[in-house]
């Protein structure tokens, strides 16, 4: 079955760190770009970060540059988002999403169910 | 940065109605636009890409049109399963920008 399954969310204090993972199955993971998209409580969708199929090319929304790092392990079919220096504004459900090609365009034909990140003291 | 504005924010309609949602870009985005449907507590689902291409498995009552700065998503005959929030998304090879969403409610 083609699916994405996120894990690693939870409650973290401001300034803390968290590592999100996304396990992919049912498709040739290395052939597709991947992204993280988040949704704050009661709000809309926000693209956060993307990575090419090889992992050589990465992109970030300005608000997370220097704090978040996206990576992938194609041997393990896993996408990772490392979240550092977290603030309350990072509180959201984080979705893992598959792109239609190796390198862009960044729209998404497969989504995971999401993992919730709450930043609070 | 390009901004995406959807209208209306909320739409009340009945089963069988023809529904149109508009998405406007702050500058021309050619046809680099996708539409998604999201139900409460669920992940978004891709409906349309490149402004007018129907994603595989999506019912034909959904259609997309437009280019440049103005785009529309049309549901030709609203079904009970279609009550949800709809998002447009401008995309490039490097990033994606979503509209704020349009909630389609039961009238």
Label this structure with key terms.
heterodimer; A: 121 residues; mainly beta; seven-stranded mixed beta sheet; four-stranded antiparallel beta sheet; B: 107 residues; 51% strand
Question: What does it look like?
Answer:
The complex is a heterodimer of chains A (121) and B (107). Chain A is mainly β and 121 residues long. Chain A contains no helices and eleven strands. Helix content of chain A is 0%, strand content 50%. In chain A, the strands form two sheets. In chain A, strands 2, 4, 5, 6, 9, 10 and 11 form a seven-stranded mixed β-sheet that branches. Chain A has a four-stranded antiparallel β-sheet with strand order 1-3-8-7, with no helix packed on it. The mean pLDDT of chain A is 96. Chain B has strands spanning 4-7, 10-13, 19-25, 33-38, 45-49, 53-54, 62-67, 70-75, 85-91, 96-98, 102-106. Chains A and B meet through strand 5 and strand 10 of A and strand 4, strand 5, strand 9 and strand 10 of B.
Strand and helix layout:
The complex is a heterodimer of chains A (121) and B (107).
Chain A: E1 3-7, E2 10-12, E3 18-25, E4 34-39, E5 45-51, E6 58-60, E7 68-73, E8 78-83, E9 92-99, E10 108-111, E11 115-119
Parallel strand pairs in A: 2-11
Antiparallel strand pairs in A: 1-3, 3-8, 4-5, 4-9, 5-6, 7-8, 9-10, 9-11
Chain B: E1 4-7, E2 10-13, E3 19-25, E4 33-38, E5 45-49, E6 53-54, E7 62-67, E8 70-75, E9 85-91, E10 96-98, E11 102-106
Parallel strand pairs in B: 2-11
Antiparallel strand pairs in B: 1-3, 3-8, 4-5, 4-9, 5-6, 7-8, 9-10, 9-11
